[in-house]
């Protein structure tokens, strides 16, 4: 085999090195040597970015090492640097995430989290759209994540990296969110691999295990954030009743529609919470 047809050598760059490279590009493009808080906006949460404050820079994901265009309808394929109104802190807002079911590996799933940490962020806000196990939580209800169950059979940690996940979702941030909206309830989020929706039997299993919400994101990102020493606030938007909770068939169109219907309340809630962090 000659040089013209030889396969390229595998990259020896570690996930942390790639995150630092991405953070350097963000710093250069934004003119900000560091950011303070990062947000990952899931289904139903995109409008919050417009309410946080002044967007000083918008960057296409494809221009930053390790990032890819949005793979899910209803998500934005860009990231924004925003000066948070009232506090002057700088937020790094990701309009999409890489899901585990895309097959790009766990490192790609948590790349945004590691990039945020490398960019200086000490707080991470993770949002998502999810299925609800409680029939009293109607579509459009935001729920604070108190804890999670990771059913992906994967982790972003490698080797003998023993990370304490007690109080993974920072209690102080949940209390702060309740100061903004005292009606907020909390629950346990269960991450499945996806992309198929959970079966009714799997939903019943999640409930037996202690779960209240089911979805396809967030848990792996939270683990990576704790490894990086970040405080974490997780908020789910119930976009549909989980399989078997109602007799209504599940569809992604329903998820997007429920997110759009709840966008105003959720966006205002998130902007108010971030303004206080």
Automatic annotation (TrEMBL):
Q: In which pathway does it act?
A: Purine metabolism; purine nucleoside salvage
Note one Pfam family from the annotation.
Answer: PNP_UDP_1
Q: Which species expresses this protein natively?
A: Janibacter alkaliphilus
What is the protein name stated in its UniProt record? Purine nucleoside phosphorylase
> Which Gene Ontology terms describe the biological processes this protein takes part in?
nucleoside metabolic process
> What's this protein's family per the entry?
Belongs to the PNP/MTAP phosphorylase family.
Enzyme Commission number, as recorded = 2.4.2.1
- Which keywords does this chain's UniProt record carry? Glycosyltransferase, Transferase
The entry marks the following residues as binding a purine D-ribonucleoside, namely 198, 240
Superkingdom as given in the UniProt entry: Bacteria
Could you confirm whether the keyword Glycosyltransferase appears in this record?
yes
Q: Does the keyword Transferase belong to this entry?
A: yes
Reactions catalysed, as given in the entry: a purine 2'-deoxy-D-ribonucleoside + phosphate = a purine nucleobase + 2-deoxy-alpha-D-ribose 1-phosphate
What this chain does, per the record?
The purine nucleoside phosphorylases catalyze the phosphorolytic breakdown of the N-glycosidic bond in the beta-(deoxy)ribonucleoside molecules, with the formation of the corresponding free purine bases and pentose-1-phosphate. Cleaves guanosine, inosine, 2'-deoxyguanosine and 2'-deoxyinosine.
User: Whom does it interact with, and what assembly results?
Assistant: Homotrimer.
Q: Which GO terms describe its molecular function?
A: purine-nucleoside phosphorylase activity
Kindly list the positions annotated as binding phosphate.
43, 75, 97-99, 129, 217
Q: Which InterPro entries match?
A: Nucleoside_phosphorylase_d, Nucleoside_phosphorylase_sf, PUNP, Purine_phosphorylase
A cellular component term, taken from the record's GO annotations? cytoplasm
